[in-house]
Amino acid sequence: MIMSTSAESTINAYNDSCPVVDSDLTVINAVIIDGLGNEPIRGGVRIRDGRIVEVGPDVSGGSTSTGSSGAAGGPVLDAAGGSVLPGLIDAHCHAFATYLTGSAGIPLTYVGIHGSRRLTAALRRGFTTVRDPAGGDPAFARAGREGLFAAPRYLYTGEPLSQTGGHGDPRPPESSACLHTSEVVDGVDAVRTAARERFRQGAHAIKIMTSGGVISPSDPIAVPQYSADEIRAVVDEATRRGSYVIAHSYSAASVRHSVINGVRSIEHGNLIDATTAELMADHDAFLVPTLAAYDAMSRRAAALGLPEVSMIKNAEVLDAGQQAIELARAAGVQVGFGSDLMGDLEDEQLNGLRLQAEVLGLIDTVRCATSTNADLIQRPDLGRIAVDCVGDLLIMEADLTDDPDALWDDRRPRTVVRSGQVVFGS
């Protein structure tokens, strides 16, 4: 299989907030959804030393009782006709988003402790890897990596970069205090230095803001942000590190502006058109939809204090989100999955799968949230039930081919396996 370059491996190893556990496990009597878009098959999965060594109808464990020893050693889990799929990957997860309205003025210790709870909850839902495009730091990642709290693999960018008055600049017009949720930085030399500083701190990738957003008070969603030279400078720094650039971008104009100048990962992209989708495909750019955020905000954000201007912006992008996925898929764009949930809305994470499945169906949505996201984060050994891949699994009591709603209902029983070790469930 294709493995990461040495530079990519260094970055991912620094970010990988999942303790290395050499565990053996055999899962039998399962409906296997492999994450690659293939038709489900009935059979089993065998994991040895944290990696998958056998998949298919011939996998057996001798005895079918949980806790018995399989042929590879370790316990045997009988799925009893339930589905097994790769551990899910959320490519837009905000660990540090303590409140919907922002984290300004909140002590970092509190933010970190709150973030650990958010990551543990994500792992419990079945997300064994997350990419945080607007937070994280080496100490927080280390705590998860050393098992101080139950965490998925955690790939972080640190603070995203925003131009003055851009989506990451939360200052109201009368304020001169710059908040810490993004770094406001302008000019080619300045953004280049900021990118280098992110990598010094172990960033997986660099995030920039190239359009307006829903939460920010003063920037129209449609207006492109950062100059071409500024974007190319950040892309140059990331490319030389074996990494890539993530862009918060909604409008067709801002997406084109980002992609033409080398951005690889487009977050949101709700307002793209067919021509822009084709351009993304031509440049091998990924689209990371975040449907759960808009749906949740439309129902709950007013009660949580989101200002009216943000509610108006949210309505603008809400209905367009699913259409953007259709356009991207028709053009051949690789479509991932993200949640982008902040504050108390985090419990809507699985709902994003339901919304995406309304467009793509179950099997393709699972692929978006597993193997496609794995390719996006430069980890082709994740997100697949295939030999030599990491043994991250989500085992559902239900057969998802008959009952897909079980996947996005967090009340339905599930077992989460990380590197062959059961971390939640039976």
What's the gist of this structure?
The protein is built from twelve helices and 18 strands. With 426 residues, the chain is an alpha/beta fold.
* Total domains: 2
Distance between the termini: 32 Å
Shape verdict: globular
Secondary-structure element pattern, one letter each = HEEEEEEHEHEEEHEHEHEHEHHHEHHEEE
The percent range for strand residues is 15-25%
**CATH architect. name of the largest domain:** Alpha-Beta Barrel
At the first level of CATH, what is the class of the largest domain?
Alpha Beta
Helix content: 25-40%
For this structure, the CATH topology of the largest domain is TIM Barrel
Number of strands: 18
CATH H-level superfamily title of the largest domain: Metal-dependent hydrolases
Q: Structural class, from secondary structure content?
A: alpha/beta
Indicate the radius of gyration in whole angstroms: 21 Å
Overall average residue pLDDT: 89
Largest sheet: 8 strands, mixed
**Continuous helix count:** 12
